[in-house]
Design brief:
Elements lengths: L8 H4 L13 H11 L3 E5 L5 E6 H6 L5 H4 L13 H11 L3 E6 L2 E7 H10 E5 L5 E2 L16 E5 L5
Antiparallel strand pairs: 1-2, 3-4, 5-6, 5-7
Amino acid sequence: MPATLTLYARDIMTTNVRTVEPSTSVEAAARIMFEQSISGIPVVDEQKRLIGVVSEFDVLARGGDSVGDIMTRSVITVGEDTDPETVARMLIEQQIRRLPVVRDGEVVGIISRSDLVRLFALTRWSCEACGYYTRGFERLTLCPKCGSEKIILEREPPGM
């Protein structure tokens, strides 16, 4: 990951998003979730615009033959320029597992809790002057150890 001053949803989202249409059978949606190890799928219309999300909960708790019968229609979304701190707060406060990232109503990505955990585990804000680092979604303005403003975002090598 290149050094940046700010992170955005576009930097951490999964871009290869599997979607389904409302006419997709509940059985087919459940199979996709199982085979791809995902807990929910955006539902799009013929113009590829987001109209809902079908989740594991929907499959288990709601009755219906098609995704359109059981999907959650009031979907909370974010834009590509949303910062990870806001995304994390939304996931926690709304008690949801994923947020579709949309551009002009079309799904361009999705951010899950695991994407944020991965970001937290593998990146850190580091002071170029003294080497102090901290984890989090928001860039430090000053190093608390030496006062330097030279803070960069680093990706740790695997295994650290």
